[in-house]
Design goal:
Layout lengths: L5 H8 L2 H6 L18 H10 L1 E5 L5 E6 L3 H6 L14 E4 L12 E7 L2 E6 L1 H13 L5 E5 L15 E7 L3 H9 L11 E6 L2 E10 L2 E9 L3 H12 L4 E3 L8 H5 L16 H6 L5 H4 L2 E2 L32 H5 L8 E7 L1 H9 L22 E2 L1 E4 L5 E11 L4 E8 L8 E6 L17 E8 L20
Helix pairs in contact: 6-7
Amino acid sequence: MSAKNLEQVLAAAGNTVDMLRNSQLGAYVYPVVAPEFHNWRDEQWAWQHSAVLFDQSHHMVNLYIRGKDALRLLTETMINSPKGWAVNKAKQYVPTTPYGHVIGDGIIFWLAEEEFVYVGRAPASNWLRFQAATGGYDVELELDDRSPMRPMGKPVTRSCWRFQIQGPKAWAIIEKLHGGPLEQLRFFNMSTMNIAGKTIRTLRHGMSGAPGLEIWGPYEEQEEVRAAILEAGKEFGIVPCGSRAYPSNTLESGWIPSPLPAIYTGDKLKSYREWLGADSYEATGSIGGSFVSDNIEDYYLNPWELGYGPFVKFDHDFHGREALEALNPAEQRAKVTLAWHPDDMARIMASLFDPDGDQYKFFDVPLANYASSNYDRVVDAGGRTVGLSMFTGYSFNEKQALSLATVDHEIPVGTELRVVWGEENGGTRKTTVERHKQIEVRAVVSPVPYSRVARETYAEGWRTQR
């Protein structure tokens, strides 16, 4: 009899790590939106130098939460404090398991007195749906699932379109669209603006310190709104961003999008695994990379390891509070950027053109991830594992291969470590993995968000100042 839920899938598989590391799902797809509108280099360049239009309409779940217990549901499932939260404010929502490990994250928009919408990847949405169904909350949920990974030519619709206007010239475009000055609200505050005669809801957002907006509205109006934005932005050099460049922006801004949801073990989570379907994200997702452990719990992460430490507030009860209170934040791994050595990157790229030499794991640009959740070993000079590299790619703006990682807390910025790139024994059976050999890539611990560490702190020959 075929499995009907995640718990049965895990029982049949036997080894959870082996199951996920050999999943046939493939890499995480950003669907429907064209890969490129100009070219991915110019699209990256635009978000730092002019302006860019991101189309976020398809790759994220929209989960609408309505009812008198909606706020209580969110409060009791998030590490964030509810204090000061109100209608027309948003939060980056981070739920943890009863054991204190991160399930996922996303953005919660407080739309009206008893109405919220979660926007993000599936794991946090699934956790909210489970808690709403089993926790005795007086709420109604409406799930608008992300668009299919591969629509295969079939029409796709969503409950709304969702765009961002970002970059140093974004606000000039926004005020031109609005027809006059628009108040620059505080970060993650919401309001409205005018576009093409329509009243559009807004979220104050920003990249690289420049003010910008996330905006959304009825799906059937998206083309009219998009055209108006691009027309207004022409004189400011706005560039529409495709699905190829879009996910690489986090390499510069510093958000780790897709840690493994830490729900595969623990008696307190058994009922959740029995609720999750055999076709759920958690059952079909994949782990990629050089970090290998027989214990799936070695892939779990707490909020501090992912940079969410400032969100943890013990002023309310939530799942995982007791476990997190027992941790010393100063002893947890810390989120960093790793800047990969150009010479080692050149070796990886050159192997594509050497039929007789070692073939290294293909490094796609601008995003090199090849699984739902990416876990590469980060080692010190003695080969000891000191962290995990979790999101990898290339920034044309910085002319630099970068990855977002979590490393032992005592390792300072400027330290040279090594990322083990590629998988063991020629690679797993994932569809995204060709036969290859592992290679150790030198990488310098750098800040988050990424900024070049002073050149004189490095050995001559790499980033040294002339």
